[in-house]
Amino acid sequence: MITDHFPLLGLRVRTPRLELRPPSLDDLAALADIAAEGVHDPAEMPFIFPWTDLSPARRALSVVQHNLGVYARWTPEDWQLPLVVVHEGAVVGVQDMLAKDFAVTRRVASGSWLGLKHQGRGIGTEMRAAMLHLAFEGLGAAEAASGVIEGNVRSERVSRRLGYRADGVGVYAVRGKAARELRFLLTREDWEAHRLDVPVTLSGLEPCLPFFGLGELPE
Question: Which ranges carry the N-acetyltransferase domain (predicted)?
């Protein structure tokens, strides 16, 4: 089985209504379809890299290639974990978690997006909470960072609700204009104080730990 060689593909994070998992090829096809349908109002740009400005077909292709690429480039010292979010049996978006030198820093960062038709139902908050459970409870993280382009009120509300504190501002060129990124940081203590009253279960994590830098990879 593929999980004998790359156990990350067997990782599952579940809440009562969501499952987060590394995407299968069928999951990637569904995720690409959602991206093609739209992720946000075209008049706005919530991402530092404006990948959603691509045509629907190119946007879908970029989703497939990006997700395949991050797993192909994975090392314990520099990794990115994209998890498709499944609600009521359908892929609705993606939740990323990434880190460099995690074994030393114990800090993760995150990113996410949902298809337009799946927004406004609390899924974004719940999937971030599930990811944070994996980071803090599953991997022993000390901190989780996040950033949001100023004006992306929904994403900022998710961070604040889950206990993140303001942690500075960055400035980037987005669509040829300066855009401020509001940065947030969540400590383990603040995570404990603001955890959602939603149970989260992890499965398939133990054999994955060396891939996160928490142990030795098999020789």
Answer: 18-187
